[in-house]
Amino acid sequence: MSVEKLLDYLEPKAFGKVHYVVVVFWIVIGVIFLVIFADMENSEPRLDFHCGGAKSEHINLVRGKCYDKYQEQYNKFALPVYGFVIMNFALIIFVCVIYSQIVKPTVNRLSQSIRNHPEGQSRNQENALSTGYKLFIAYCCQLSTRLVLGVVFIILQTQLLYPLKFSSKFHCYLTDGTTQPRNSSDNAQHSTLHDCHNQRAVKKTSWMDAVLVVNGIFVVAILIEIVYIFLRACKERDFMQNSKFQASHLNPPEESQQQEERIQLVINITHEPVQQEERTQLVTTIAHEPQQQEEITQLVTNIAHEPQLQEEITQRVTTIAHEPQQLEERREHGTNIPQEVHQVEESKDDDTNIPHLPSGPEQIVKSPLQEFIRNTKKMIIDDTYQPPQLRSLFPSPPGKGHPPKHLTLDQIYTNLVVVPDMAEYDFTEDRRNNLQIYARSGEKNETPRGPEDILNHENKNILIVGRPGIGKTLSCTKILRDWASNKVFHKTPDDKIHCDVAFFVKFRLFNAATDLSLRELMTRSTYSPRDELDEQVWNYILENPQKVLLIFDGLDEFKFNSEISKKDNEPQFRNKVDEKMPLSALYAKLTTGKLLNGAAVITTTRPTALSCIESIPFHKIFEILGFSSEQVEEYVTKFAEEDKEAGDTVKRHITSNINILSLCYIPASCFIICSSLFKMVKFHASKGLNLPTSLTDIYEKAVKIFYLRHTEEFRDKHFTRKDFESNDLPREEEKKLEKLEKLAFEGIKEGRLIFGANEVRGMEDSALFHRLPDREVDSFSSEGQFCFIHLTMQEFFAAKHLTNNMSETELRNFVQMNIKEGKWQLVFQFVAGLMKNKKNLPREIITDLLPVKTEEKEDAYHNVQCTENKKETKVTCWPTRDKRDLAVTLIKCFNENSRMKSEAQRKLQQINFNYVNITRCHLTAVDCSSLVNVINLQQISHLDLTSDNIGPLGCLEICKLLKCRESQLSWLNLTWNQLTDEAAKYLAEAINNNNCQLRTLDLTSNNISDIGAQHLAEAINNNNCQLRTLYLTLNKISDTGAQHLAEAINNNNNCQLRTLYLSYNNITEAGEQKAHNLLSNIQSKCKLYL
């Protein structure tokens, strides 16, 4: 049978273009292999196999007998290789032919159905041919069969039938007078050894390897296709249906017959007097098949260049497009309206993906629908470029100060952590764990990758829930902007949903109690380009609801949201698109599919309004959890990308403070904090000052701005820079918050972060609360639950309650009783900051708690002298071991209030100590900053921060103390602090500073590598360096780092370093010897410990 005959049995439409080419390639390569191996099998025993040691008259006999033995060894089952090749390729081709013949009638009928009825059956039902699974099942079966056969042939070839390598050398023993090889010692003397050589062996091995490779490639390709098909089938159930599977996976090539039919169709339209209804159906058929459009476009273009036909064609198509339709009865329900005939066009609009209307050979006329979509998208792109939420909070007057920092949506938008359903909150007694509960990592949650993972064919009615400021409106704005930019929901092969028109409805703009129709709602939507919808646009929407996207934003802000479920059940409002009704009823009918059934609807709300929409059958509910810590860093980087230095400072300040970092999980808070800190950085940098680290200042500013921007009565008010200059809220608002402050205090006191609905009555809609899932009281009742939007917010308002309601005596006693309890520590830090503006609350309430007890130590380790035999040195330590945690808490409080800090420093000077011992206290970088600000005293010569985990950023803060002119710090212990090469760089810069008096530096048990060692070596090589002793034991330094240090000591004739500890690193014996050799010269006075 010829290849051409064989191809007649293979139906191309049953495989798809690529797959069909692969099958043809399989046939061709099979034929090639068959020819090659058949030739080998024929010529190998006669021409390519030679044996020595035989007389000339017996040479053919010896060759034949030895070749038989060769075959017995390398082809145990006597199956010729060409026979194996025939089986290998022919069986798989046979499977393809059987599959092709089985599905051929199905694919032919499907193709015929698509040609005759491009839109398929009616929208509400499809025929069995289209919805059956025969094609999918048969396709998967033939793939699986071919996969199994491929694996079987690979195993047969490599493990059973043939060796992996055919040897070219063969030792053949033949006994005299017999064809049997010697079997015993008795006939050994009658055996003859013949050395044989097979010239074809190497080539044979290579071709067998080629067969193996081809089989392997095909097996892997089939396996990948099977996995892809099943994954897609799991994601899209309708993918397995015959029509969908053929259209999206097989995609058979168009036949010439179809093209002829289309050409005839255009001729009929332009030359025959068909009725309006028939023309509409014909034109609709053309307009909805992209491949037909392209071919007809080309045809029309060709005809348009013929003068005799041009005028007639243009006139007839234009007439068809403008004949009135009798659509009133169908229009009432928004369904089953014939497609607008204006879709017969020469080409398609790039932005709208909707065809143009041809009006001449060179001129293209845009339809009203195209103009509407184009104008809508342009308006969205223009208006969402720089949303009001992203405008600068502190703009300077024109021509003064720094230019305002307005952000664009594309520049700053950062993906949010979004989880299906409502998130659960399992608070514990561990404060640090509770902070992490708010800022959940996106990696640990089922986070949709983008809008199309939220909205798709299966889930078209979506509810997005989130607390105030979490990013609901901004994320929907981003979705709309991406749609307008053709990035999502656009007609591409891999899209899950396609939308031609979109409407953005803000509920709060419809709080006036007026009735409106669906058409009026769309014209009053936020980005509607006109005050009314053109008739063609309106008809397109009614006929194609599946291509409409509706976004309803801020259900909780809608005054009549409680009537949504009730209005849907009232009989006076019919399911008609032209009937006027309240927005609550209109929204209910849209979300239940009674109007525009099939439209995509996204609704956003705070959790407080969920009870109003209990009867709405949402396909899917998502909750926005905000930013993870990784996304906060990404946001801060984007925020300050134009000023990297200021941005790095802001990022360090946020990431080094767990309280601020955790609060930034709320995007609105993150924007406020970034804006405030950026403003501070710019101001203090111009004055040559450091960034203030008062947590209270940041929170007072952030709370005020957040409250004003997210409280309902202020939502539409425009705020100026002057409104945000002070930290105080309007007096009437402060009064409203008194109940909230008391609740916050009681919650901290009782260890409660969750409050019942009765406790927050009257405050449920506050921007400072978050509604949690209801708690089931019993089998038939539940209770609403609330928490503050963040734990630090609760702690801040608890502090405000203390400073606003307690007298001096009450506050003094309360602080004294609870200062050592962890749950009050941040509260008291806020109390200290708030006391700045409370004249009735003296600073001594907190400064009097400063511990004054000291202890003395005597140890040679504390000696900073450079003598070889160090004497023990006596130091006076503060605080004592039992008061360290109290001292750290108070230092944080003092840093919040400049008057307190001054008073604390005066008291510390009176204590008379020189050794600060803050070990095992787990300090953050912000804590280190507070420590440096408070203990910056001349009397302090020793600082011990062992096992505080301060990290590189904490080290950066400590380095500020080394650079301070007043500082006399000569001994610093930073053992076990997770210091890296970055920290070593900061220390090197500080050591080189003219003000640095440091003599002993202990960096034992950190993560410093060769890079860090090089930084320290550069510092040692500087004449400003006064280090005498350097401990680098238990780090990650190798021979390279040791050499850098040794060379620096050796090269600096004025080097002050006398002792260097490098033991327990990654230094080899060769590295040790090299370092010793460098320091062995007579000038070096440094002793090296390895």
Describe the structure.
This protein is α/β, with parallel strands linked by helices. It is built from 42 helices and 23 strands. The strands form 5 sheets. Strands 15-16-17-18-19-20-21-22-23 form a 9-stranded mixed beta sheet, with no helix packed on it. A 6-stranded mixed beta sheet has the order 6-11-7-10-9-8, covered by helices on one side. Strand 22 (1059-1061), helix 42 (1069-1078) and strand 23 form a beta-alpha-beta unit. The termini are far apart.
Number of helices: 42
Which outline best applies?
flat
Oligomer: single chain
Helix amount, in percent? Answer: 40-55%
Order of the strands making up the biggest sheet: 15-16-17-18-19-20-21-22-23
Number of strands: 23
Largest sheet: 9 strands, mixed
* Estimated share of beta-strand residues: 5-15%
Give the overall average pLDDT.
79
Report low-confidence residues grouped into runs of 5 or more: 115-127, 178-189, 252-346, 356-364, 441-446
Protein name: NACHT domain-containing protein
Domain NACHT: 460-609
Region (Disordered): 344-363
Biased composition (Basic and acidic residues): 344-353
Layout of strands and helices, then pairs:
Elements: H1 3-8, H2 17-48, E1 49-51, H3 59-74, H4 81-116, H5 128-131, H6 134-161, E2 169-175, E3 191-198, H7 201-235, H8 242-250, H9 256-271, H10 276-287, H11 290-304, H12 307-322, H13 328-331, E4 357-358, E5 364-365, H14 368-383, H15 409-412, E6 417-420, H16 431-438, H17 451-454, E7 461-465, H18 472-484, E8 501-506, H19 518-523, H20 535-543, E9 548-553, H21 564-568, H22 583-591, E10 600-605, E11 620-626, H23 629-639, H24 644-655, H25 658-663, H26 667-687, H27 695-710, H28 721-725, H29 731-736, H30 738-750, E12 755-756, E13 769-776, E14 782-788, H31 791-805, H32 808-818, H33 825-834, H34 844-847, E15 855-859, E16 873-878, H35 884-895, H36 898-911, E17 915-917, H37 925-934, E18 942-944, H38 951-963, E19 971-973, H39 981-991, E20 1000-1002, H40 1010-1020, E21 1029-1031, H41 1039-1051, E22 1059-1061, H42 1069-1078, E23 1087-1089
Parallel strand pairs: 7-10, 7-11, 8-9, 9-10, 16-17, 17-18, 18-19, 19-20, 20-21, 21-22, 22-23
Antiparallel strand pairs: 1-3, 2-3, 4-5, 6-11, 12-14, 13-14, 15-16
